[in-house]
Every structure is written in C-alpha cells, then in structure tokens.
Design brief:
Length: 97
C-alpha cells in the first residue's frame, strides 16, 4: 500500500512567526505527526505500535516521547487493574504448591 499525504494550511503570518523561531516546514510536519500520534494513543484510537509508526519514531523512542509528555504507556481502568492483581495472586498461589 502507498502513502496518503495529509496537508495543513497555516496562515502566512503564523508560519513566519514559527519560521522566525527556527521551525522549518519539515520540523512543523514532524512535530505535528508526533503530537497527533500522542493524541491518537492517549484517546485509544491507535495502538502503541501504530501510534509509533504515525509519529515516525521507533516504538522505544515513542514510549520515551509519551513519558516526556506525561502520557502513561499502560493505563488500566480500575476494574482491569483489579483483575490483573487477582490473576497475579492466583499465579503466586499455584507456584507455592
């Protein structure tokens, strides 16, 4: 499968302000992809792997990016976490036998 290009339009004055701050078109595009990937992962629209792919980062670099932006990689709901602990306790009991 090929790629699909998504384009954003910026008002010229805004682009000039960003450009004066050292942001090139490529840097704006790269940062936009990373932030979109972060949002898609946080909102559970995309998995970790697919979000990393969207961001253009390796999975490990994307995990670091999430951490830098206070987005947890594992975000269990309370009931999911309770089930995980219950399963862990059962496994520990089996190992003791």
């Amino acid at each position: 499968m090929g790629n699909v290009q998504a384009v954003i339009d910026l008002p010229e004055q805004l682009y000039l302000s960003l450009s004066a701050s050292g942001l090139t078109k490529e840097k704006i595009a790269t940062e936009s992809r990373k932030l979109l990937a972060l949002k898609c992962f946080r909102d559970r629209t995309l998995s970790l792997g697919r979000s990393a792919e969207l961001s253009g980062l390796s999975k490990w670099d994307f995990i670091e990016f999430l951490s830098d932006n206070n987005v947890p990689v594992l975000d269990y709901e309370e009931d999911e976490l309770a089930r995980e602990f219950e399963t862990s306790e059962k496994l520990v009991e089996r190992l003791k036998k």
